[in-house]
């Protein structure tokens, strides 16, 4: 019998939606009049980049257009948004279905210059990324690897690296590109691509980047939080990736600019992509504390290849240990400030709220800006819902990651019973430590129990922090940073159990499948005449006799 | 402002599917040849009743027909069943969608006598029952009241009483009907309807009947169990009802038959409906222990009205404290046995399995036959998913019930935080005790907390039994008897909280709805300029300064 040969894992097929090509609703054409609006691309060689940050009047005009379009066409302020949100939430459980037509509409309402950017961005993704990605949102494009793909290698192949865009994908010529330093630096300068690659010491770091929305789906399944302007995509457990990033440390470049003025506390990054907040466009702008310039890389290569457009070509920031939102792509300006960036992606998004704040009372000032990521882990195999055939031990594998500085993943444990007993991954079952990267792990977990089991994993960092027990322990209104113990439910078949072996042999004899689990047995579970005889003879007495 | 007037509860509209008329797939016509098959209704005045129990040859023939039809038409033994099961499970979350075409097909394949029974049964339901029922399964018909309807009165109005059929609904003339006693009684007799009503002391009891599948949906959402031949319908929390049942005690009638022979241990009930197990038809037959004849009523009235066809007219059993499956409808025969009934509804269904048994190894003999129901309760208001506006206390109401004998509901408690703190229902908040009926309750629960909250309830019986904490504590392969603490998730808005009051006032001013909760605020959560000023001035410092 095949099933006795080895402990095998079969997918029930209900884990992951097949990636499909999402095109969004690109049919909206009203208000698109050639030359009627002032919005222009900034310079030759910078396709998909409008310098909103230098044109406050353009930002206001764009907002006025979108406000008016929204008010004129809609019965209530959030009517179309509401429909879109509802559709999104309805499909939260089936990763792969969010189209992002609302965000597309923002661009397409603003005239011919922006009109094609959503469709072009999708073409870029199709050209550069693997067809095996799970699409979480088509525009802005958000996609992640499958569970099978992501743990094949410690270094994620570029086409499989997750993508979390906040707007369009600019296409910038290397030769046209420059990086401008300003604000509270002693000697503001501009650096060309050629200078960046040749004038400074080059450094390569192995670094995992994780989205702050990693594993958000678990929070959303617990309770719906904000589906904000940025569209809080229902990421599963693969919104992270690991690469060898090559570039120049930010400290080196700041030194080149004569160092920082005394009151500089934060470094603001400008990305060339266009992003909207409350109908107002801007470039994607966030900041990091000045101390992070030491290990932040201004990168031009990803795993030895030039950056692709999807990943921020020609140059991006890589901020180790921080949420991916700080590793700005299509980077063109860095400005030293005496405070964190006031731009909305820094000041009004990526905020971590307290438990008693929600839509009924939250203010931006009730949250804090998210920086370093906490210890987290997830099970990639088996998959949720699988029937697992085994001989008393179930092989479990996954990833573990922590952010921050001077920190790493120290230990991983797996529980076969929802957190009652824990089994550590042995030393030989986990990949090497990195200062800034994840570890992949595999462990065989003793599992005498059969039927539906709740498997869960937890990791420990160098300072002995571990993960919260329940999703609700860390649930927050913006559903960021899900790092509670990851749970999967499997159906365990211990083939060393004689009753199970006998049942599987019987099914095999009748060519009857075991799965789907809930479909009734195709054969009698025991000899009916014998069973009824036992009842008749009182051998299965239900009532006491005295 | 309207919302400050009182603590009000608004439905988010996502709780209950609207009842819709389910017709099933009644298009199957193959093999229906007039006169070609021997299956006949038993007697005039007994429409919808075939005496399968007296015709073992008919049972075998019917099984052969269905086996052949299945094998000839289907690629694998459970192919069509599987599709049906999958459809059912996919719709488990939306009560109201199970059509029961597989069960209809059993009837329609067996020739013109049975062909119209599924459709006729549905017509009977439509005529006799409330249009407000939630249909859980169209054929065999299963339906329950809504949460709002069920707690309006301690005595459930007949049209709202839940219905759990196992087959068709027979239409039996009172004048044709008789009840036959046999087996291990000293003096076997037959009783007419006239005799039953006039020759014996009449007794009325107030009795709650609950399906063993009550609250099954909670187990199914935890993990899919068997979707067996009987179709384990995804009942929510209303598969129970309370009525004043009038009739004659079974003890009285057994005495009339000269009492029981010494070795009689069980009393077997025969119902006139047709039910199928593994393609083999039979009448619906189960049994109860002889001790239960003391309080079992052979009933002909429900709340002072003659029984309707849907509820077993002209006569049914009512077995207090036991699962509804033992209160046989369309009763026509009672047989004393020296063991529990060997019929499949008793010996192969309604079995309670151990935790380590499942599809991989269960045998009927691993289960025990379910009798008395344990202590249970459920919250009927607020409803899962509701946004609740309140002034620091939330009004919660529901039902509590326990089965068994010499037992009753003693106490009910509600927790506003998933079982951490418990608040008892005060004496004046709960309806009177009955020996055999539920109690309805209301309690105001102190709730300072806001946002998504996990409310749960538990009841205590006279012997201080209470409910298990988690669904998984009692999860079993046949998903019977869900009595773990019932949980609902609400969104709490404490309007005495100044920050919430201010937010609601702001939304009111802008005519902006609060719900749906996950749709972004239509207004700024605080003054943006002031907030950004605080960041600029370092008042919200994220980094330590020394």
TrEMBL record, chains A, B:
GO CC annotations on file: mitochondrion
Cofactor(s) required, per the database record: Mo-molybdopterin
Superkingdom per UniProt: Eukaryota
Oxidoreductase molybdopterin-binding domain boundaries: 166-341
This protein's UniProt keywords: Metal-binding, Molybdenum, Oxidoreductase
Domain Moybdenum cofactor oxidoreductase dimerisation: 370-491
Leader peptide range in chain numbering: none
A molecular function (GO) term: molybdopterin cofactor binding
SUPFAM superfamilies per the UniProt record, alphabetical: E set domains (SSF81296), Oxidoreductase molybdopterin-binding domain (SSF56524)
Pfam families: Mo-co_dimer, Oxidored_molyb
Listed InterPro entries: Ig_E-set, MoCF_OxRdtse_dimer, Mopterin_OxRdtase_euk, OxRdtase_Mopterin-bd_dom, OxRdtase_Mopterin-bd_sf
Gene3D superfamilies tied to this protein: 2.60.40.650, Oxidoreductase, molybdopterin-binding domain (3.90.420.10)
One GO-annotated biological process of the protein: sulfur compound metabolic process
Name the UniProt record assigns to this protein: Molybdopterin binding oxidoreductase
């Amino acid at each position: 019998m095949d099933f006795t040969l080895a402990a095998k894992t079969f997918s029930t097929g209900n884990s992951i939606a097949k990636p499909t090509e999402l095109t969004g609703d690109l049919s909206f054409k009203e208000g698109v009049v050639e030359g009627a609006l002032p919005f222009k691309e900034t310079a030759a060689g910078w396709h998909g980049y409008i310098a909103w940050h230098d044109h406050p009047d353009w930002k206001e005009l764009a907002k006025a257009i979108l406000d008016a379009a929204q008010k004129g066409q809609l019965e209530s302020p959030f009517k179309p948004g509401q429909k879109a949100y509802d559709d999104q939430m309805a499909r939260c459980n089936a990763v792969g279905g969010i189209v992002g037509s609302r965000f597309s509409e923002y661009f397409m309402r603003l005239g011919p210059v922006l009109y094609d950017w959503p469709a072009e961005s999708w073409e870029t993704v199709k050209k550069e990324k693997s067809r095996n990605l799970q699409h979480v949102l088509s525009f802005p494009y958000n996609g992640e690897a499958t569970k099978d793909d992501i743990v094949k290698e410690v270094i994620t192949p570029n086409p499989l690296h997750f993508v979390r865009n906040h707007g369009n994908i600019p296409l910038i010529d290397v030769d046209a590109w420059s990086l401008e330093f300003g604000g509270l630096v002693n000697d503001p300068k501009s650096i060309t691509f050629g200078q960046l690659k040749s004038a400074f010491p080059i450094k390569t770091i192995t670094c995992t980047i994780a989205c702050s929305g990693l594993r958000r789906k678990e929070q959303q399944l617990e309770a719906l939080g904000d589906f904000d302007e940025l569209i809080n995509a229902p990421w599963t457990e693969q919104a992270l990736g690991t690469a060898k990033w090559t570039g120049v440390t930010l400290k080196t470049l700041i030194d080149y600019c004569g160092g920082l003025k005394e009151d500089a506390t934060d470094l603001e990054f400008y990305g060339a992509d266009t992003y909207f907040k409350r109908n107002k466009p801007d470039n994607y702008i966030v900041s990091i504390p000045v101390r992070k310039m030491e290990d932040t890389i201004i990168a031009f290569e990803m795993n030895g290849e030039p950056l692709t457009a999807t990943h921020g070509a020609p140059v991006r920031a890589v901020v180790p240990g921080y949420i991916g939102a700080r590793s700005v792509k299509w980077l063109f300006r860095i400005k030293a400030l005496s405070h964190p960036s006031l731009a909305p992606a820094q000041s009004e998004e990526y905020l971590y709220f307290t438990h008693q704040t929600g839509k009924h009372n939250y203010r931006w000032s009730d949250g804090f800006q998210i920086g370093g990521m906490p210890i987290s882990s997830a099970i990639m195999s088996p998959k949720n819902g699988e029937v697992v055939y085994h001989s008393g031990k179930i092989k479990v594998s996954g990833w573990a990651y922590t952010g921050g500085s001077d920190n790493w993943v120290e230990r991983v444990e797996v529980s076969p019973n929802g957190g009652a007993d824990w089994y550590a991954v042995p030393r030989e079952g986990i990949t090497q430590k990195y200062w800034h990267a994840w570890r992949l792990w595999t462990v065989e977990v003793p599992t005498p129990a059969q039927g539906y089991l709740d498997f869960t994993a937890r990791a420990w960092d160098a300072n002995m922090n571990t993960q919260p027990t329940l999703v609700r322990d860390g649930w927050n209104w913006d559903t960021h940073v899900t790092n509670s113990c990851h749970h999967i439910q499997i159906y365990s078949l211990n083939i060393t159990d004689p009753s199970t072996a006998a049942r599987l042999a019987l099914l095999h004899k009748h060519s009857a499948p075991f799965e789907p689990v809930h479909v009734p047995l195709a054969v009698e579970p025991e000899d009916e005449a014998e069973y009824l005889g036992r009842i008749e003879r009182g051998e299965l007495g239900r009532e006491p006799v005295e």
